[in-house]
Write a structure and sequence with these properties.
The chain is mainly α. The protein has 20 helices and 2 strands. Helix 5 packs across helix 6 and helix 11 packs parallel to helix 14. It starts with a helix and ends with a helix.
């Protein structure tokens, strides 16, 4: 059905022109924001700011035990990147996350003398990944711009330009491409190559931020095979490729190992990171209240419920469409392709994970583009079904 819709729409008059116009409309706002903030993203002179970051860090809760100041997350990441570039053991600065994300920021400083420049590339890589997945499912370039346009123009994505650098946007493209490469692996003949690419992406995911997202991705992929009940050579080669991810994690701690830590100690650090983040397991199911009704259950102070200005009505609308799609697919009332099955499993797994504890919209980017893609696919299939029924009458 997806192929049929794609071919039918591609016959529209001026189809190619429409694709170009929609592409330009899609990227206009991000490009305009970049132009507005070109100094922050492209101006040289990081080392002139380093001492400011250093002073903020020295007066923050990471150093001062009494009456500490507050260092913004983006300032902390900018400081850590510069310090890592100097060769300091990364676990001596911040060890709440693995170091690779900050090393990527260090690379940005090294290449561009600006900690934010590489973020621009990662933003557009995320957008390209969303488009490629949408294209794989919708089989049509014009339709594929729809979920992409929503995602990269909504406030949640746009605001990442203003609060930069942060680790979430650095990790996001690797999450997206891990899923994309896995989809290619399950539908292409040369699947082992794609599974290797998948494991490389998984390695970046667990080396940039807390490894739980990598675990959830692997669980999603294994669950796909379990549901399909296919434990063949393809499944075995996928499992055999996974150690690549662990190797990338170890490589990200090269400096720590050079300074005397053992490989076992590196895995011990991951245990510390796990216990550090386990403290966030409170306010279960508040994720759904935030997603559907813009009621954010805060976990500080008096734990009030507030609204998030980044919330848009498309979130609950798309979530309902994705839910209906999943239910109709489960009861075989609507066709579901193999890549769509992967996305549905990911949406369910990640949503259940977010349901376990406190949440905020900063954790939504790994979810929303996939919800938009499924919602778009569902609408296309419903329109085609209604059209076929109308013709049959």
């Amino acid at each position: 059905m997806g192929n049929a819709a794609g071919k039918e729409i591609s016959k529209f008059p001026f189809y190619n022109l429409l694709c170009v116009v929609l592409f330009l409309v899609t990227i206009s706002q991000p490009l305009y924001i970049l132009f507005q903030n070109k100094e922050a993203f492209f101006a040289k002179g990081y080392m002139d700011l380093y001492e400011q970051y250093h002073n903020l860090y020295n007066s923050s809760q990471y150093v001062q035990k009494e009456n500490p100041g507050i260092i913004p997350d983006e300032a902390l990441e900018a400081f850590a990147a510069g310090t890592f570039l100097k060769g300091l053991n990364p676990i001596l600065i911040v060890h709440d996350q693995p170091p690779l994300g900050r090393y990527i920021l260090s690379l940005s400083i090294l290449l561009f003398d600006n900690v934010n420049t590489i973020i621009v590339l990662l933003f557009f890589l995320s957008g390209m990944g969303v488009f490629l997945i949408a294209r794989l499912i919708l089989h049509n370039t014009l339709l594929s711009f729809v979920p992409l346009a929503i995602f990269i123009n909504e406030p949640l994505f746009v605001n990442k330009f203003y609060y930069s650098p942060l680790l979430e946007p650095i990790q996001l493209p690797f999450i997206i491409f891990a899923i994309y490469f896995f989809m290619q692996g399950i539908i292409k003949k040369n699947y082992f190559k794609w599974f290797i690419y998948t494991s490389v992406m998984l390695g970046f995911v667990i080396s940039i931020r807390f490894f739980i997202l990598g675990v959830l991705l692997v669980f999603t992929m294994v669950l796909y095979f379990l549901i399909k009940k296919k434990f063949d050579k393809k499944f075995a080669l996928f499992i055999l490729s996974l150690p690549i991810a662990a190797i990338i994690l170890l490589v990200s701690y090269t400096r720590t190992i050079q300074l005397g830590s053992s490989i076992l100690q590196i895995f011990g650090i991951q245990k510390y990171i796990f216990y550090y983040h386990r403290a966030q397991l409170s306010l279960p199911f508040s994720f759904w209240d935030l997603l559907f009704f813009n009621r954010w259950h805060t976990w500080w102070g008096e734990r009030t419920i507030i609204s998030d200005p980044q919330w848009i009505f498309i979130w609950p609308f798309s979530a309902f469409l994705a839910l209906f799609f999943s239910l109709l697919g489960f009861f075989r009332k609507i066709s579901v392709s193999e890549p769509e099955k992967v996305i549905v499993i990911w949406i369910i797994v990640y949503s259940l994970f977010l349901s376990l504890g406190e949440t905020s919209t900063r954790y939504f980017p790994p979810l929303l583009p996939f919800v938009y893609i499924i919602a778009t696919s569902f609408l296309v299939k419903i329109i085609l079904l209604l059209k076929s029924k109308f013709k049959s009458k």
